[in-house]
Amino acid sequence: MLFRRLTIQWKITLLASLCLASIVGLLVGLSLYRMVQSADLVKTSSMQMLKEAAQARIETQGEMQAIKIRSQFMDAYQYGNALAKQLLMLRGLAGAEFSDTGNLRDAMSVQLRNALESNPDLLGLSLVFEPNALDAKDAAFVGQSSRGSNEAGRFALYWSQLSDGQLASMALPEQDMANSQVGPSGEAANTWWMCPRSTREVCVIEPDFYEVRGARMLMTSIVFPLIVADKVIGTLSIDIGLERLQLLSQEASSSLYEGRTHVGILTPAGLLAAYSADASKLGHPYSRLDPERGPELVEQLSNNTRLHTLRDNDVLRILASFPVIPGGKQWGVILDVPEATLTGPAEVLKADLDSRTASGAVFELCLGFLAAILGLLLIWLMARSVTRPILGIADMLKNIASGEGDLTPRLRYTQQDELGELVGWFNRFLDKLQPIIAEVKCTSQAASDTANQSSHIASKTSIGMEQQYRQIDQVATASYQMAATAQDVARSAAHAAKAAHDAGQATRDGLAVIDQTTNSITTLAKRMNTAMDQLKSLAKNSEQIGLVIEVIRAIAEQTNLLALNAAIEAARAGVNRPWFPRHSPSSGNSVSHTLLETAA
After folding, report:
1. Is the pLDDT confidence value at 111 over 50?
2. 63, 159, 418, 594: least surrounded by Cβ within 10 Å?
3. In whole angstroms, how far apart are CA 401 and each of 5, 122, 389, 397, 565?
4. Pairing of strands 208-212, 262-266
5. Residues 6 or more apart in contact with residue 438 via CB below 8 angstroms
6. Region labeled Disordered — which residues (predicted)?
């Protein structure tokens, strides 16, 4: 109901505003939806990309650590391989160069001492031959430890570096070669001796703690088989300290995510050769450190899996396996990275994207609001420009309807649209209406003048009839004073009085007709062309009334004569009839009415 009372301008403004607001809201909503979708896609993709990049980085770091560790082992491997060849060559020259077998054993000891002295990174070197495999004279050197011979005469020499940088040698007892007791690593204590003899390959012994240089140190050994004529005649063992691996693990941890990454180095048996988080765990099985995933990682290591990734308990674990020497068993580098550390940059990016998305949403909402306000203003101005010609037409029609309108002004609207067409035709309508109104005005003025003249004539006619009426009353009054009238004259007078009464009634009816005619003339004056015809008819009626008045006047004159005669006759009769009424007002009235009726 309220909408019906609004102006066209406000209706257009409200409807267009609703449409504009709906469109702006829809566009802004779609834009925000697309923005949120895009932001979610970017966040998801970025999160995935950053995770993959972080994983790739960690895998690369693991491979780099594997290369560093392998390089340390490879240095010892290559050195030991060359030394083994030199020792075999020295043995081959025993017959030609060393006539005394004791000199050969001394040369072997010197060669080992020089090799260890030239490579201080090595903890120790051991050279053990099969019984009588060196010179077939073990029995001659029983108990000569200075020449590297043990209690059985076998050449089993071990050179080691002391804490003060000095070198020391000792003959390994037969018990060391025969000790098959299983150690913490799961290997027998004499694996260093048995492995190369059984596999005929270079063996890397599982690390274990030993008292070296007065300190407890984790070390391992690379053992080379000495093969002559397709027969293993002895072994060369190089002892390597693994404290360097612990330093490598700590350096790798500090270089990855500011130390929040744990780096461990696993042996083929699953022992921790290095662990950046806790050095006290060295030599312990990794499965004890991680009971849930440790066995799986050790199994993957034994299966020679190059890279293996595990995600569990919000921790990413990557295992990079590698052989420390060609053809050797797989060692592994384990990197434990918390998922929160990996996703840290992604979370920062996500927060930045959320902030930018929120800022963009606020900006779009403000921009949409400003656009809506500007659109509403433009719509209001457009509606105002549309309704202005219509209001101009309404004002002109209002002036015309109120009777005070000026038809000379014209609306001005220069645009060639529907409103321009409306204004043009309205101006043309005024062009045609103006002369018609002027003509009607002139005709109405003429009709008004004619009506005034008719009214003047009717007034004069009414005055004349009133005078006649008074004269008739005077005549009737005179007749009242007649002394007497004969019975026949009285009867005639009664009829005459009735006729006069009817004539008087007709006269009053005529006056009423004249009043009605006067009102009709006034009404006819407002009806333009029809008024002229009615005025002419009224003029004719006035002439007829004049004729009637003339007739009444003639009748009145005749009545006067009759009354005079009757009075004379009555006077005459009154002399003879003194009882006859001499004055009869009712008779006079009857005569008057009769006269009026006769005149009518």
Report:
1. yes
2. 418
3. 22, 123, 18, 6, 69
4. unpaired
5. none
6. 581-600
Helix (H) or strand (E) run with residue 334 in it: strand 330-338
Q: What is the DSSP string of 184-202?
A: TTSSBTTHHHHHHHHH-S-
Poorest-pLDDT segment among 40-49, 61-70, 542-551:
542-551
Confidence of residue 539 (pLDDT cuts 50, 70, 90): low
Element containing residue 336 per DSSP (H, E): strand 330-338
Distance CA 366, CA 372 (A): 10
Beta strands in 213-326 (DSSP E): 215-228, 231-241, 262-266, 272-275, 307-312, 315-323
**Contact between residue 127 and residue 234 where contact means Cβ atoms under 8 Å apart:** yes
Nearest to 271 by CA among 287, 284, 288: 284
Q: How many residues does the chain have?
A: 600
Percent pLDDT > 90 in the chain is: 15
Orientation angle between helical segments 344-401 and 418-480, nearest 10 degrees:
30
What span, in angstroms and rounded, lies between the C-alpha atoms of 467 and 270?
Answer: 155
The three-state secondary structure class of 159 is strand
From the list 538, 555, 557, 560, the residue with the least C-alpha distance to 600 is 555
Amino acid occupying residue 519 = N
Evaluate whether 208 touches 185 at the Cβ level (below 8 Å): yes
Angle between helices 8-92 and 101-118 (to 10 degrees): 160
Contact 58, 337 (CB under 8 A): yes
| Residue 97 in tokens | 């160069």
List the structure tokens of 254.
Answer: 């500090």
Residue 98, SS3?
Answer: coil
The residues facing 321 across adjacent strands are: 332
Q: Mind spelling out the 3-state secondary structure of 398-436?
A: HHHHCCCCCCCCCCCCCCCCHHHHHHHHHHHHHHHHHHH
Handedness of CA 399, 401, 407, 409 (dihedral sign): positive
Indicate the average pLDDT of the chain.
77
Angstrom CA distances, 315 to 288, 295, 350, stand at 17, 17, 20
Six-digit token string for 266: 């696993």
173 pLDDT above the threshold of 90:
yes
